[in-house]
Write a structure and sequence with these properties.
The structure holds 3 protein chains of 3 kinds.
Chain A lengths: L1 H12 L4 H44 L2 E3 L5 E4 L3 H8 L1 H33 L5 H8 L7 H12 L5 H8 L11 H29 L3 H9 L4 H29 L3 H6 L11 H11 L3 H31 L1
Antiparallel strand pairs in A: 1-2
Chain B lengths: L1 H39 L3 E7 L3 H17 L3 E7 L3 H11 L8 E5 L3 H7 L2 E2 L2 H7 L8 H6 L1 E2 L2 E2 L2 E6 L1 E6 H6 L11 H14 L5 E4 L4 H11 L5 H4 L13 H16 L2 E2 L4 H13 L3 E7 L3 H5 L6 E4 L15 E8 L4 H15 L1 H11 L12 H9 L5 H8 L14 H16 L4 H22 L3
Parallel strand pairs in B: 1-2, 1-3, 9-10, 9-11
Antiparallel strand pairs in B: 3-13, 4-13, 5-6, 7-13, 8-11, 8-12
Helix pairs in contact in B: 2-15, 18-19
Chain C lengths: L1 H31 L4 H5 L11 H9 L2 H32 L5 H11 L8 H10 L6 H5 L6 H11 L4 H10 L3 H12 L1 H16 L3 H6 L8 H11 L5 H35 L1
Helix pairs in contact in C: 1-14, 3-14, 4-8, 4-10, 4-11, 4-13, 8-11, 11-14, 13-14
The chains are: A mainly alpha, B alpha/beta, C mainly alpha.
Chain lengths: ~325, ~450, ~270
């Protein structure tokens, strides 16, 4: 790396004469080209090989049938897409993903905001609560899955035991479709809370105090303050958090894999899990590629939305 | 200024922790390395992929250790690769790279697929070279993994699906145990009595949502799942899930679930773990599973274990079930000395002694005929007579096209689809409709797959 | 003021309730890791045999420490590489003038829209072709750089006053020197944020290592836990919980000590 750069850097190390100074602008630009190559080369190479090319390749593969060792053999045009979009199983997967994403985003934001709002007031020992509220940021997906798997497990799990104690009807959390979806949403929200709390907490701290004081003097109720001062002030951060959470939810895989493996009755068979299942369990790479393309399009749209927004704010 | 100092201090602490962690890891990895390296220096490394869990995994690891100690030429390295379904694509995907295994275990229903990849050396080659006496290995199991007189892979862990019941619990509630070859209504009776007499403290019965069990219901009823005689007469082009026998079976389960005599534990590894845990703690009276669970169900179980044949539909004789389990394959992407090492290891696993030990530890059937004479196995039969049942079930069946496995590529897909159908049915959906949906998807899959592979 | 005083106990009550919800799974996980599995299987959440036996078992019988080491190596390498390549890339976009700069920047920005999860099929084929499977390299090389990192650092580098660059030009500093001596120190908080972000991102990888590692020698901790969980037919909950705790404790410590930085860095990232 360094050796590549040293020769190019030599000219500017030389003592400057008038002549060179005149030519400097031109020289710099010539040098810049090589610097750019050295500085950007590695990044461009990696992104090209592992992000750009695979997208094109996925598009290509999605137009084929693949044989039993995963090679594309028969060109079938858009048939994979047609089959997917008309298959009730895939529609169910899309629907499950939508329910999951909406559930995760809504509860993550509401709870995150509640935590941040509670922690922003100055109270003795509040630092402890702030630390605790951010704790799940240190939890990785498999740890979260294992903790919650135990909580939801039948007969020995916490929820089952509480239910038994209170003589409530037993819920087979992970083996009945509805409750299984609730279970994975709860686990995901819990896992997301630490990060969301930190960001929203930071945003709340930056709301200028005089705004509240002015509102208080005018006799505004706390809820009025919240809706008319706090929310507008942190709405950019809320938007950022919600898109990050949303995109993350679309990409969910680990928790699903460990907790439900897409079941029961495909109720938690989210899009990424469906890709994994069709490609790496069924060996149906063409179909899985078509599913990947659909997933990519959805995520790209939401990312674009986020960009549009960020761009606006950067220029302000 | 003070805050700046404070933050620098924190940074320092963070750095110190990181350094300490690195140091601890480095120390630990240096300490744990030399032993392994010294041993493997001269030996030919043979990577072995398996999908065994629990007691079977422990026994398999013991075999690996014993094999490595028994000779000095090869070192077998065993790697657990997750469940059967995952392993197939892993095997295909790594072929020809440094990551691929030299010898691997692959499940019964992947036989056709693995064979068609052309990625393996048939064990027949080594059988011929060594004049290995294959007749000592159970013929039924061998036939499952042979094609046109060539032994493709070596049958290894071979099981029979059976029904387990808690004999102690039945006695407690004064319930007559099911007969050794029960019909559906025999099982319904026991399940109903258990649920009623225990006042729902004991769950009567569960049938895991598992494609394998679905296939075995069809086998035992004597109906083909795929056309071309379950693929024994040619490449199948369609499946039949909607036949009368299957509908009847699903209705049996659905009705009992509705009545509350059966319970649903779901699908997958979690379901298996949970039903086993419930059974062992006396909260579940009966369940159906591979005979390979025997090891797990007898160690540390205070209650007496009862075993019966796989249930069959009322009003007909049982046709018999196919064997389940997996076989051992040798990859052809490794040099000949590594392949030879893989074969030596397979031979070691198939000795009468190893196979007897295998059955005792796991419940998989000993495939070496001489194993029956081994003391460990004799002792097991004496101690737990019920453990003879799976072997008897195997011998009781006359092999025919419907009970000798299904030679169809994409059986993993079939299991996913039938499991989805089972889940829907268990949750109260229309039986005919759920099965028809699965059938339609599977037929589309088969057509696409046949086309993609040029069959 | 009076209002807040009367509300104080209520506020504490809510805070404590929320803390219990957040901490509940941790506490339950830690507590059950101290119980014998036999008691857990019976549904008992209390036992007279509290011990660290499950931890001893996890360390002795499983490769949990190896998994941790693997994750540590992978995440550290990924973090270091991303710091280097992202900062170099960002520098190029801020201080270098070359043809097609804006186009290239937008192209790189566009890669942020493409989820890695949707590209695993060809990427698997690529690393297979390169014979990288089942090695640390397979989990590091695709993530040597990140579009997000370049974007974030570009924002940070743009805050550097132009006078600094002019002064450096007068002093005859070349780009490499300016990058190293001025740009990096100036943007150290952003760099720290990127470091934390890339380390955690790599540490939390699940799908990709699951597809590309086949032995305990290289398997990172997320997939190690999956491995432990799927190997246990008996539901050895005590040991599984102990392993989960072993995995979560180091990240929690790092988080608590480095909290201050995460907070600042994250907010910077969020508000920029």
């Amino acid at each position: 790396m360094q050796q590549e750069i040293t020769p190019a850097s030599k000219p500017s190390l030389k003592p400057k004469t008038l002549n060179q100074a005149n030519a400097k602008g031109f020289n710099l630009h010539v040098n810049d080209k090589w610097y750019a190559l050295a500085f950007l080369g590695p990044s461009v190479l990696i992104l090209g090989v592992f992000v750009f090319y695979p997208m094109l390749r996925t598009l290509y593969l999605s137009l084929f049938l693949t044989n039993n060792v995963g090679r594309p053999t028969v060109f079938i045009g858009l048939k994979n897409y047609v089959n997917l979009l008309t298959s009730s199983a895939y529609q169910a997967s899309l629907q499950a993903t939508a329910v999951y994403v909406i559930g995760v985003v809504a509860f993550t934001l509401i709870l995150g905001l509640l935590l941040a709002q509670m922690a922003v007031r100055k109270l003795a020992g509040i630092q402890w609560f702030r630390t605790i509220f951010s704790a799940t940021m240190g939890v990785s997906v498999s740890v979260a899955a294992i903790f919650w798997l135990f909580i939801f497990s039948p007969s020995i799990g916490l929820f089952d035991q509480i239910g038994t104690l209170l003589h409530l009807p037993l819920v087979q959390w992970l083996t009945t479709p509805g409750p299984a979806m609730i279970a994975v949403i709860i686990s995901t929200v819990w896992m997301n809370l630490g990060f969301t709390f930190l960001i929203l907490f930071g945003a709340l701290q930056m709301v200028p105090q005089p705004l509240y004081e002015a509102a208080a003097i005018e006799g505004a109720s706390p809820s009025y303050q919240f809706f008319h001062v706090t929310l507008p002030m942190i709405s950019p951060t809320l938007f950022f958090t919600s898109t990050v959470t949303l995109i993350g939810a679309f990409k969910s895989f680990g928790l699903i894999d460990l907790m439900t493996a897409g079941g029961p009755n495909n109720a938690t068979n989210l899009m990424v899990y469906q890709v994994y299942r069709d490609a790496f369990l069924n060996g149906n790479y063409g179909l899985a590629s078509a599913e990947s393309v659909i997933l990519a399009v959805i995520i790209a749209l939401f990312t674009l939305l986020q960009f549009k927004f960020l761009e606006k704010r950067v220029t302000y | 200024m003070t805050t700046k100092n404070g933050s620098q201090q924190r940074l320092l602490i963070l750095g110190a922790i990181l350094v300490a962690v690195i140091a601890a890891f480095a120390g630990w990895s240096v300490m744990s390395k030399p032993a392994a390296q010294a041993q493997g220096a001269k030996r030919t490394k043979v990577v072995f992929w398996n999908e065994m869990t629990g007691p079977a995994q422990q026994q398999l690891n013991t075999f690996v250790k014993d094999f490595n100690q028994s000779q000095s030429k090869y070192e077998v390295v065993s790697e657990f690769e997750g469940n059967y379904n995952e392993a197939v694509q892993k095997i295909i995907n790594t072929h020809g790279t440094d990551a691929s295994p030299a010898v691997f275990q692959s499940m019964d229903i992947s036989t056709s697929q693995i064979h068609h990849t052309g990625y393996t050396t048939p064990v027949q080659k080594f059988i011929d070279e060594d004049h290995y006496n294959v007749n000592q290995i159970a013929a039924g199991a061998r036939a499952f993994y042979a094609n046109k007189g060539t032994q493709l892979s070596m049958p290894f862990n071979t099981s029979q699906p059976v029904l387990y019941y808690n004999a102690t619990l039945l006695k407690k509630y004064k319930i007559t145990p099911p007969p050794v070859n029960p019909s559906y209504s025999d099982i319904t009776r026991v399940a109903t009595q258990l649920t009623d007499r225990s006042h729902k403290k004991v769950q009567g019965m569960t049938v895991e949502i598992y494609g394998w069990l679905f296939e075995q219901f069809m086998a035992n009823a004597g109906v083909s799942l795929a056309n071309q005689e379950d693929g024994h007469a040619g490449t199948p082009t369609a499946v039949n899930f909607t036949n009368a026998a299957t509908v009847k079976t699903m209705k049996w389960i659905q009705d009992n679930l509705k009545k509350g005599d059966f319970v649903n534990y779901g699908a997958g590894a979690n379901a298996q773990n949970n039903e086993t845990a419930s059974f062992l703690s006396g909260r579940l009276g009966m369940f159906m599973q591979s005979s390979a669970s025997i090891g797990q169900l007898t160690t540390g179980n205070q209650d007496q274990l009862g075993i019966t044949y796989y249930p069959h539909p009322d009003g007909q004789k049982s046709n018999g079930v196919a064997i389940g389990g997996a076989s051992l394959w040798i990859s052809n992407d490794k040099p000949s000395n590594v392949q030879r090492g893989a074969w030596e290891f397979i031979k070691y696993l198939m000795t009468a002694k190893s196979q007897a030990q295998w059955q005792v530890a796991t419940g998989y059937l000993a495939l070496n005929k001489d194993s029956q004479k081994e003391a460990v196995l004799q002792n097991l039969y004496k101690k737990l007579p019920a453990t003879k049942v799976p072997g008897e079930q195997l011998r009781a069946a006359t092999p025919n096209a419907t009970n000798s496995g299904i030679f169809l590529q994409g059986l993993i897909q079939e299991r996913n689809l039938t499991q989805t159908a089972m889940e829907q049915i268990y949750n109260g959906s229309d039986i005919q409709k759920s099965l028809a949906t699965a059938q339609k998807s599977m037929n589309a899959y088969i057509q696409g797959n046949n086309r993609a592979n040029g069959y | 003021m009076i209002q807040t005083k009367t509300r104080k106990p209520l506020r504490y009550l809510v805070l404590i309730l929320l803390a219990i919800i957040i901490l509940g799974p941790f506490i339950l996980g830690f507590w059950t890791s101290l119980l014998p599995t036999a008691d857990i299987a019976k549904g008992a959440l209390w036992s007279t045999h509290i011990s660290f036996a499950n931890y001893a078992e996890a360390v002795k019988q499983t490769a949990i420490l190896r998994y941790l080491l693997n994750s540590f190596v992978i995440s550290t390498l990924t973090m270091a590489a991303q710091l280097l390549f992202c900062s170099l890339g960002a520098y190029a976009f801020v201080f270098l003038k070359f043809k097609g700069r804006d186009l290239l920047f937008y192209l790189i920005l566009a890669t942020m829209m493409l989820p890695f999860e949707a590209e695993v099929i060809p990427n698997f084929a690529t690393v297979r072709q390169l014979n990288l499977l089942n090695h640390y390299a397979v989990m590091v090389i695709p993530f040597l750089t990140s579009a997000f990192g370049i974007f974030m650092l570009r924002q940070a580098f743009r805050q550097i006053p132009p006078e600094l660059k002019e002064a450096a030009d007068v002093e005859g500093l070349n780009h490499w020197q300016f990058y190293w001596r001025v740009t990096l120190p100036y943007a150290r908080i952003s760099l720290f944020t990127l470091a934390a972000y890339s380390f955690l991102e790599s540490w939390n990888q699940y799908l990709w290592p699951m597809l590309t590692t086949f032995s305990d020698k290289f398997r990172p901790v997320q997939d190690g836990l999956r491995q432990l969980q799927s190997q246990e037919t008996f539901n050895n909950w005590g040991m599984i919980q102990a392993s989960a705790v072993i995995v979560v404790v180091p990240t929690l410590i790092v988080l608590f000590v480095g909290q201050h930085y995460f907070k600042n860095g994250l907010n910077e990232g969020a508000t920029k």
